[in-house]
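Dear support,

I submitted the protein below through the web form. The confirmation email said the job was done, but the results page showed an empty box. After a refresh the structure appeared. I'm attaching both so you can tell me whether what I see now is the final result or a partial one.
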Amino acid sequence: YSAYEVKYCVTSTIDSLGMLFRHQIRADEAVTGPVGIVNMVGETVQESRQISARAVVLTLANWVLLLSSSLGIMNLLPIPPLDGGRFVIEIFQKLTHKSVSTRALSYMSAAGMILFLGFFAIMVNQDVQRFVFGNWG
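What the results page shows now:
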């Protein structure tokens, strides 16, 4: 059952990313940052607390599984500071038999990091707006 749950979380994350890129779901409804995650975990723990301590533990274990698998998939995206970006660069070097200069790698990593941090700032801002105005969905 555990293997099924892991597979489900990984495929759900991949399917959700595909839906985001195909504009089948809106990013502001589907993506959340750390503030939103803490809020959702807190709400589900409060709801499961009414059932039993075992329900709280299972709920938290499910959240850990979902977050771990989602972060693992996101880390494989082909953005240079992430492992997926490094993987793409390695494949490029193997196929072309040329190495990418350290300077080019630095620029790609810096550009990817700026993109990544900008995206993170937007998510945190969106989460704070939801938190302040109470519009969590």
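Response: this is the final, complete result; the empty box was a page-load delay. The chain has a mean pLDDT of 86.
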